[in-house]
Design a protein that fits this description.
11 strands, four-stranded mixed beta sheet, alpha+beta
């Protein structure tokens, strides 16, 4: 047990004190990219962070304490992982979110049973965060900093209040997905019955967010809408009507 504890501490120290700036290539960026292996999309595992590197140096992907590098843009990298493992189709998720009120219509998250990622800006080249991997969010002057549970700090292009709102919608999406795919679907309770928030300052903040206190959809409504969009997608592909597939 002690040996495991030592390994855990060394992993934390690997990222502790490192800060990634959005548009400036720094020593911390160089350190992480040098330590990163090329991503193997076939390997299952939760994503902690997807962050485009400055100067077109690729996309940094973190899985807990392990850094990886992808050649694809951030959304392409996320979609490639989900497609290979036959998980959610992001274009269909966007359509579902546009039709169901509790979900964001623009900064749409992508979700599976194990984790959720949400973009901060335009999805194609955005930073993507796992809300359950956030330790705390700090406004430092005009800059917003996100401290991850693995010790890394990243600069983000939105204000703290906006990030909290988007993150709460991502957690709601994860809870809804788990509820609709659960073998024992609860018809009462609240979204946080399906998501265990981490014991962190950010987790505590989310636990009090209004959106996560009660269900705004009936059980099964999300998956029914997703399956409907999936059927429409298949039909348009079959008939050759592809005009709306990439909206």
């Amino acid at each position: 047990m002690a040996k495991i504890g030592v390994i855990f501490i060394s992993k934390i120290q690997a990222f502790e004190g490192k800060v990634l700036q959005e548009n400036q290539f720094t020593e911390d960026w160089a350190y992480l990219l040098e330590a990163a292996s090329m991503i193997n999309y076939w390997t299952m595992g939760e994503f902690t962070l997807v962050y485009p590197a400055p100067d077109n140096r690729g996309t940094l992907i973190l899985r807990d304490h392990m850094p990886f590098l992808a050649e694809e843009r951030s959304l392409e990298a996320v979609e490639k992982f989900f497609t290979l493992h036959r998980l959610m189709d992001y274009q269909l998720m966007k359509r579902v979110c546009q039709s169901l009120k509790p979900f964001p219509s623009k900064k749409v998250p992508i979700v599976n049973t194990h984790f959720v990622l949400f973009p901060l800006t335009k999805p194609e080249d955005s930073i993507w965060l796992n809300p359950l991997a956030i330790h705390q969010v700090i406004d430092k002057g005009s800059v917003c900093l996100v401290v991850l549970t693995n010790g890394l700090t990243v600069e983000v292009p939105i204000i703290r209040k906006s990030l909290i709102t988007i993150a709460s919608k991502a957690v709601y999406s994860l809870a809804t997905y788990r509820q609709d795919y659960s073998a024992t679907m609860l018809t009462d309770g609240r979204p946080l019955d399906y998501v265990q928030l981490p014991a962190t300052p950010f987790g505590c903040l989310l636990s009090k967010h209004e959106l996560l206190q009660e269900w705004l959809l009936t059980p099964g409504e999300f998956i029914t809408q997703y399956k409907l969009e999936e059927h429409h997608h298949w039909y348009r592909s079959y008939t050759g009507d592809l005009s709306e597939l990439d909206d």
